[in-house]
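Hi team,

As requested, here is the filled-out complex form for the T5A run. I kept the field names the same as last time so the parser does not choke. Let me know if anything looks off before we queue the next batch.

— J.
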Amino acid sequence: MGGDDIPRPLFEMGKWGFFITIEGIEGSGKSTLAKGLKLYLENLGLKVVFTREPGGSSVGEKIRKILLSKEDSMDSMTEVFLFLAARRENVVKNILPALQNGIVVIADRYTDSTLAYQGYGRGLPIKILRRLNKIATKKIYPNLTFLIDIPPGRGLERKNENDFDRIEKENLDFHKRVREGYLRLARIAKKRIYVIDGTRDPAEILDEAKRVLYKRLVEKKKIKPMRGE
Ligand code: T5A
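And here is what came back:
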């Protein structure tokens, strides 16, 4: 079924919104997919808030600069606390208020990034990171996660090596561990995490994500036709 086969009446969302996260290694196409999904949902008549991590809030964007700066090295646990501080701000200022107002939230990276990068990539204990994520997020977890899977070389090739940030500059083995970690997380959380082959054309990736998202919104009874339609 192609993207055009999806029915396009105007919908409204229930009282509590819907939380979508997009995950994957560097250059996998997360921002590209997020833009496409936002437009798709807005065309369905839904309100959408987009956030990214690290960032998403004014404090978070400042923390982002520290985290990605090439100038400083940092202890792995310091890195965790900074990502979580940015996440907490994002939850409190953006994600939670939007969900409480029946808005769809699309987040470019969230809790799985910490498990994949700091857990599987840096080797910190996953159990502890899960507990810290739980505290930082007030237990606000995604309803649906798209994991765009791509070999690390392919993703990094899409970017300019001279602009690589502190984490992109890590060696290929690190990025391979992150990718494998993501795939392991997807095997554990089969219902929530949908893996998409990111080596294909962006339009094909978007079509697949749209189909999965629409089905999930209907299954969960999250959308209903607008009155008078
Ligand atoms: N991090 C983050 C942690 O370590 N722990 C955490 O808890 C969190 C939250 C964030 C860094 O922080 C780390 C992970 C990251 O290292 P970032 O700048 O936000 O840094 O980096 P990314 O999230 O990786 O963002 P990127 O912009 O690098 O990648 P995207 O968003 O995945 O890719 P996108 O869509 O910008 O596309 C990249 C290029 O590829 C093209 C696009 O046009 C663009 O030029 N493209 C495609 N080309 C061919 N085929 C496709 N299917 C394509 N899709 C996109």
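Two things worth flagging: The beta strands are 11-13, 18-24, 48-52, 104-108, 144-149, 193-197, 223-225. The longest helix spans residues 76-100.

Thanks,
J.
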